[in-house]
Amino acid sequence: MRIGVIGAGAWGTALAQVAASGGEDVTLWAREPEVVASINEAHVNALFLPKAKLSPAIRATGDLADLAEADALLVVVPAQHVGAVLCEIDVAGRPLVLCAKGIEAGTRRLVSEIAADVRPDAPLAVLSGPTFAHEVAAGLPTAVTLACADPGLRNALAERLAGPSLRPYASDDVIGAEIGGAVKNVLAIACGVVDGAGLGQNARAAVIARGFAEMTRYGIARGARAETLSGLSGLGDLVLTCSSTSSRNFSLGVGIGEGRPAASMLADRRTVAEGAFTAPVLREDARARGVDMPVTEAVCALLEGADVDAITQALLARPLRPEA
Ligand SMILES: NC(=O)C1=CN([C@@H]2O[C@H](COP(=O)(O)OP(=O)(O)OC[C@H]3O[C@@H](n4cnc5c(N)ncnc54)[C@H](O)[C@@H]3O)[C@@H](O)[C@H]2O)C=CC1
Ligand SMILES: O=C(CO)COP(=O)(O)O
């Protein structure tokens, strides 16, 4: 099978490596000419995944037209750029496997909704779950959710994407798989703040559990199934990113908790912390749907410069309520 990967950040590069290791013919589109050169000449992505030694079989390109022969396309640019990139490529009815985690600012669309609007002829699948790119590229054991409405395509893609250390679990709940990945990034920022401000491990566990409750409320309001949210793409990814400084979202939160301004940390980054972009649009959408998301509200306030102590006190002073 010929696989085209759109986006050569850390995750696109790791997925290209998995596919190439499985013997697939892989073409990887990178936006940055220096990334194309680094992959083709030194078999390394020096900018976004510097420690991984890549298969020489991966061919990098800066021209989306070079993906014209691919049988399936993995879409791995950050969520805010998916719409623009899909407008530029002729997908010609080929399956799109959507791998970004986020909600589009302005439109409040999930990535599958963007793709369905921009490329209504393309069959869609979502790949999501607890997957730090550097671990996947190193061949460490990883399980993911692969969601697709079409059972035939779902099984075919699962067969192709599975590897000795990458195990996809199939689902037909596309929206559910996406909600988990988008919301956990926001909650990971909150957990990072707890860590950076030294609020303790009890507080972090509370944020994970209450965050999961609000992820579930929001997901159900958007048509997700609760069982998907408690699977790899929801709870699984929440646990991963809320407990590790390998997470860019968690690290951003640590910086905020230590008192550094979010805006300057974001301006200094080349890599993406999707939660910073998803948080405001998630808050807007939750409010519009009447879903209570206090942790998300808190993260938005902190990104806007609110004081950590004041936000912590406000969360603790909320009216008492039943847990369920
Ligand atoms: N890194 C990871 O471990 C994982 C990342 N993801 C998701 O994959 C998506 C991509 O993230 P990473 O590969 O980590 O990115 P990254 O942070 O490693 O690199 C940034 C990426 O953004 C791209 N970019 C910047 N401006 C752009 C524009 N205007 N148009 C198109 N692309 C642009 C860059 O070319 C680069 O590919 C995100 O939604 C992320 O949440 C999902 C699972 C794991
Ligand atoms: O989505 C991820 C792991 O599943 C990566 O998390 P970060 O974007 O926070 O690094």
Automatic annotation (TrEMBL):
Catalytic reactions of this protein: sn-glycerol 3-phosphate + NADP(+) = dihydroxyacetone phosphate + NADPH + H(+); sn-glycerol 3-phosphate + NAD(+) = dihydroxyacetone phosphate + NADH + H(+)
Pathway note: Membrane lipid metabolism; glycerophospholipid metabolism
An individual GO BP term: glycerophospholipid metabolic process
Residues binding substrate: K101, R248, N249
InterPro entries xref list: 6-PGluconate_DH-like_C_sf, 6PGD_dom2, G3P_DH_NAD-dep, G3P_DH_NAD-dep_C, G3P_DH_NAD-dep_N, NAD(P)-bd_dom_sf
Subcellular location: Cytoplasm
One GO term describing the cellular component: cytosol
Residue ranges of domain Glycerol-3-phosphate dehydrogenase NAD-dependent C-terminal in the record: 173-306
Domain of life: Bacteria
Active-site residues, as the UniProt record annotates them: K184 (proton acceptor)
GO function terms (MF aspect): glycerol-3-phosphate dehydrogenase (NAD+) activity; glycerol-3-phosphate dehydrogenase (NADP+) activity; NAD binding
Residues binding sn-glycerol 3-phosphate: K101, G129, T131, K184, D237, S247, R248, N249
Entry EC no(s): 1.1.1.94
Purpose of the protein: Catalyzes the reduction of the glycolytic intermediate dihydroxyacetone phosphate (DHAP) to sn-glycerol 3-phosphate (G3P), the key precursor for phospholipid synthesis.
Family as reported in the entry's similarity comment: Belongs to the NAD-dependent glycerol-3-phosphate dehydrogenase family.
PANTHER family named in the record: GLYCEROL-3-PHOSPHATE DEHYDROGENASE, GLYCEROL-3-PHOSPHATE DEHYDROGENASE [NAD(+)] 2, CHLOROPLASTIC
This protein's name: Glycerol-3-phosphate dehydrogenase [NAD(P)+]
Species classification: Bacteria, Pseudomonadati, Pseudomonadota, Alphaproteobacteria, Sphingomonadales
